[in-house]
Specification:
Number of helices: 14
Low-confidence stretches: 1-8
Helix content: 55-70%
Family: Belongs to the thioredoxin family.
GO molecular function: protein-disulfide reductase activity
Radius of gyration: 20 Å
Mean pLDDT: 87
Protein name: Thioredoxin
GO biological process, one term: cell redox homeostasis
Strand order of the largest sheet: 3-5-4-6-7
Organism: Bosea spartocytisi
Structural class: alpha/beta
Number of strands: 7
Strand content: 5-15%
Length: 299
């Protein structure tokens, strides 16, 4: 509801939470509508930039989404379990599960678009229409057409992060790791933490890791012979991901976390988070994997 052009204040729409209050304020509340969790700290300059922007956007959404803020200096446990390594970081929860998010201070238009992705559609600009057409071309198997469309988008907006990420991933999908790196370098340095850019960077790192691994059959034999050979199981997860067997890769890492959370300095969980970043938050394997991880950590 708007009053004199401004969103009316709604009790409980924005609040602070604690480690103890997280389950009620976030997990339980997200069963009713999406809940955004803003991880911040008093010393964080970008956090102070984001706060008024995200609060305004949440109020404008008219109760379709809530905002919960968590000071990680006072309450570090939840952010640590979710793999939050830089702030500000915003994670969206729905039906008790983390489903989307972004890092870094974002302009009002991007925060609004993020919220509308959760609760309703948003009208795209010309470059975004070209990017959407490129994604449709990719889905139809037309990589060359997608590449041309991404190129047109970059002509309109040379620093369009979606077009840079899409074109870089196209090169990566053909095995051109160096070409993918070169295109990714076109992104402005201050946007290095953007979700789309970070996802492609993570995918490139995974491709480089997988290139050094052998055939999955040998790794599978090692795991079958000794289920507690966590290094073999870890390497197998990397190799399976390289072959686009994402659910199997997730299951192997979850098995390590369940058996020995401390193995390799919590390496299995960290690798799983890198998978999610590379795949994107809305990928089916990411959604399913986060659900399994969340159940394991919070049950």
């Amino acid at each position: 509801m708007l009053v004199n052009g401004e969103a009316a204040e709604q009790p409980g729409l924005i609040k602070d939470t604690t480690t103890q209050g997280f389950r009620q304020d976030v997990i339980a509340e997200s069963m009713q509508q999406p809940v955004l969790v803003d991880f911040w700290a008093p010393w964080c300059g970008p956090c102070k930039q984001l706060t008024p922007v995200i609060e305004k956007a949440v109020k404008a959404a008219g109760g379709k989404v809530k905002l919960v803020k968590m000071n990680i200096d006072e309450h570090p446990q939840i952010s640590g379990q979710l793999g939050i390594q830089s702030i500000p970081a915003v994670i969206a929860f729905k039906q008790g599960q983390p489903i989307d998010g972004f890092m870094g201070a974002q302009p009002e238009s991007q925060v609004k678009a993020f919220i509308e992705r959760l609760v309703g559609p948003v009208g795209p600009g010309e470059a975004e229409e070209l990017i959407a057409a490129a994604q449709e071309a990719l889905a139809a198997g037309d990589a060359a057409g997608a590449s041309e469309l991404y190129g047109h988008a970059l002509q309109l907006e040379p620093e369009n992060l979606g077009a840079i990420a899409g074109l870089s991933r196209l090169h990566l999908d053909t095995g051109d790791i160096e070409g993918a790196k070169g295109i990714l370098a076109m992104a402005p340095q201050e946007k290095a933490s953007d979700q789309a850019i970070a996802a492609v960077r993570a995918a490139i790192e995974l491709a480089e890791q997988a290139a050094s691994l052998g055939d999955t059959a040998e790794l599978e034999a090692k795991v079958a012979a000794d289920p507690k050979d966590y290094q073999a199981r870890f390497d197998l997860a990397l190799a399976l991901n390289a072959r686009d067997k994402r659910e199997e890769a997730v299951d192997h890492l979850i098995a390590i976390i369940k058996a020995d959370r401390k193995w390799n300095d919590d390496g299995a969980r960290k690798q799983l988070l890198q998978f999610f970043e590379a795949w994107g938050p809305m990928d089916e394997a990411s959604v399913g994997g986060r659900r399994k991880l969340s159940t394991l950590l919070f049950s």
